[in-house]
Amino acid sequence: MDATDLCYTPATELARLIRSRALSPVELTRAVLARIERVNPVINAFCTVLPEEALRAARAAEEAVMRGERLGPLHGVPYSVKDLALTRGVRTMGGSFIFEHRVPDVDPPFVTRLKASGGIMLGKTTTPEFGWKALGDSPLTGIARNPWNTGTTTGGSSAGAAGAVAAGLGPIAHGSDGAGSIRIPSSFCGVFGLKPSYGRVPMWPVSNNDSTTHNGPITRTVEDAALMLAIMAGPDEADRTSLETAPADYVGELRRGVRGLRVAYSPDLGGLRVDPEVAAVVRRAVSVFEELGCAVEEVKPGFADTHDIIRCMWAVHEAGIYGPYLGQWRARMDPGLVACIEDGYRYGVADYIDARGRKLAHWDSMRPLFETYSLLLTPSVSVPAFEVGRLNPTGWREHAWDWFDWASFSYPFNFTGQPAVSLPAGFTASGLPVGLQVVGRRFADLTVLQAAAAFEQARPWGSRRPARDKF
């Protein structure tokens, strides 16, 4: 295969080729690094690239293959890490001038596990400042652009991660999701993104946002995500909220199908605004689950309204965590983040406690549906990717910082900690990807992956590449 095809080959296939000595880890790493060098100046998916370190690791991986050593499941396969996650010896800026020169001396558990699996770390992917919004621009690292149309946003906050995977800059990427930050950019960029159950992948340092952030994979295939989750998941003493159960056999049990499952479908979660093209693509995608033998029923969920809850809690968290930096750094921070912080200071303690109480009670309004249905299908995002430089799409309510109106399908499931994915469902008339969200019961990560794999087999998407693959 040529270098471009190699860069679009799934991680599971790359690992098999490397183990069989049909592919050199050095050859693979050089091909991906060359593509990053050519494409990244256009889409800005990586803020830090590690060519020397990656090639050094690839040479060591190749030597291990030739010596017949025991190989890990990702041996010789490139991956990337979102720039919000600490990485030992590698700059971690968080998209902010405040930490432009920070070089941590520790790895979080999931990075340690990816390294131990034999993966080759390519570098760090771009994120908005501190991941505060579902878009891809940062005052420090600039604008991440969507490979399907570089005039549009990747979404965020795992902006560079989704853009990189879509553009063939490595087959798998780490993302994190506090209100949709894996699923939103995966939807916009036409890739697969999994927000696992809360605690499935341990987090350290534990995010100070009331247990809503999840680490997970962004990939081009469901099997790659299953493999990556199997590596990243599992308890760790550094995170007392991590789930104590060992990961399921996500890869081995992936193809068991979903025939007989009761599946709920909600086109608008009871009243959310949805772009008509998005709604039409999602409705067609839902019919696939009927073909797969599921009993699909359109429902009106009756979930409690959560916009006021997240607007309060999001702003207060930003104020509490990043407000102390305003005095010195205001002029170099994202103006939207500054506005969010200032809004956060307007809430009182009683306001926050009330919002947090309603957040905790939100599960009571969701639980009845998931006692009846194994899965819930919705749009991943209300809109397709829109123009870079905007906080909200044209024709949607403008606000100094609030972007939640068009992203309201995702964050309710951060409140409950349920597993949820965005899978490629189709395209708009202008060629922009649309994502279908699949939400599972608590801790049912395997069921969600099996549903996604069955859909992928029925409606394959892996061969679709951005039209701008002339980079």
Summarize the structure.
The protein has 471 residues and is α/β, with parallel strands linked by helices. Helix content is 37%, strand content 15%.
Describe the structure.
- Helices cover 37% and strands 15% of the residues.
- It is an alpha/beta fold and 471 residues long.
- The chain has one domain: Amidase signature (AS) domain (Amidase signature (AS) enzymes), CATH 3.90.1300.
- Strands 1-3-2-8-10-9-14-15-13-11-12 form an eleven-stranded mixed sheet, sandwiched between helices. It has a two-stranded antiparallel ribbon with strand order 4-5.
- It starts with a helix and ends in a 13-residue tail after the last helix.
- 55% of the residues are buried.
- The mean pLDDT is 97.
Reported by name, the CATH topology is: Amidase signature (AS) enzymes
Q: What is the domain total for the residues?
A: 1
Which spans have pLDDT < 50 for at least 5 consecutive residues? none
CATH architecture: Alpha-Beta Complex
Spatial ordering of strands, largest sheet: 1-3-2-8-10-9-14-15-13-11-12
Structural category is alpha/beta
CATH class: Alpha Beta
Annotated CATH homologous superfamily: Amidase signature (AS) domain
Give the SSE string.
HHHEHEHEEEEEHEHEEHEHEHHHHEHEEH
Estimate the helix proportion, in percent. Answer: 25-40%
Report mean pLDDT, rounded to a whole number.
97
Instruction: Estimate the strand proportion.
Output: 15-25%
How are the secondary structure elements laid out?
Blueprint: H1 3-7, H2 11-19, H3 25-43, E1 46-49, H4 51-66, E2 78-82, H5 109-116, E3 120-125, E4 137-138, E5 142-143, E6 145-146, E7 149-153, H6 159-166, E8 172-177, H7 183-189, E9 192-195, E10 214-219, H8 222-232, E11 262-265, H9 276-291, E12 295-298, H10 307-322, H11 326-329, H12 335-344, H13 349-372, E13 375-379, H14 412-416, E14 420-427, E15 433-440, H15 445-458
Parallel strand pairs: 2-3, 2-8, 11-12, 11-13
Antiparallel strand pairs: 1-3, 4-5, 6-7, 8-10, 9-10, 9-14, 13-15, 14-15
